[in-house]
Hints:
Blueprint: H1 6-17, H2 21-47, H3 52-63, H4 70-80
Helix pairs in contact: 2-3, 3-4
Amino acid sequence: MKDTPAGIEATFLDLMMSRSPSERLAMACRTFDTGKALIQAGILDECGELEPGELRRRMFLRLYPQDFAQDEKEQIIASLADI
């Protein structure tokens, strides 16, 4: 779905491209950090207090639900308990 008028989209792109690459990277990192915080809050709201390893596993599954094959997911999830 695309509901942004072309002129607004062009203005937004111009504004983003007027920033330095390091500023754009910093913005992306802050956006990702905010997203992780929202995901964590949602998990804790659903499940209550969790062990750190369990929280990491649930965060991984929410962030990357379809990015890995099932066997890869299982390996990654198993390794998160060791961190």
